[in-house]
Design goal:
single chain, about 170 residues, mainly alpha, 2 domains, 7 helices
Length: about 170
């Protein structure tokens, strides 16, 4: 399994485990609530330490079974829609990714993000800018931030450079 596939799987397990554990802890008995919190911590711990994904998957399956025992509860979390599931997993993925990065890698991410923000904000504030240019700016900014979220250095820097070029071409001081 490639590192980013593993990181994505960890993010999926953490996200689902957190939701299920919170539900079971809130709606189950005191003993079950304690066990649910322990399982959620186990999923998080296994994922952080680069531990056994199978054990984390087993813990999430156990939490799912406990949630299924409360199937008639009005606040039982359902399966999220695919787009919502991806969005939630992406948020967890960013956390997982940042935890594994070295300090220099985090530094380039911060610098590239700052560059994207500065150029994008300058384009947003520019008066009389063609709507197509604004659309291009939003597109480039979105691609750049997505590349950062996924840890793709070359793509993020390429989009930051394209955004800078758009700013230099279109914004007159």
């Amino acid at each position: 399994m490639v590192w980013w596939e593993r990181a994505w799987r960890i993010a999926e397990l953490r996200q689902r485990g957190d939701v299920l554990a919170a539900f079971v802890a809130a709606c189950g008995g005191a003993e079950r609530a304690w066990q649910a919190r322990e399982l959620a911590a186990e999923v998080c711990g296994l994922a952080y330490a680069g531990g056994d994904l199978d054990a984390a998957e087993d813990a999430v399956r156990t939490l799912q079974a406990w949630a299924d025992d409360l199937a008639d509860h009005p606040y039982r979390p359902g399966e999220p829609r695919p787009d919502a599931a991806d969005r939630l997993t992406r948020d967890h993925f960013k956390d997982v990714l940042r935890e594994t990065l070295t300090t220099p890698a985090r530094d380039w991410m911060s610098g590239t993000r700052l560059s994207l923000d500065v150029h994008y904000q300058a384009l947003c504030r520019a008066r009389g800018l063609d709507p197509r240019i604004r659309e291009d700016a939003r597109y480039l900014y979105g691609r750049g931030t997505m590349a950062l979220d996924l840890g793709h250095r070359a793509a993020a820097q390429r989009e930051a450079a394209r955004l800078r070029q758009l700013r230099e071409t279109c914004v007159k001081w």
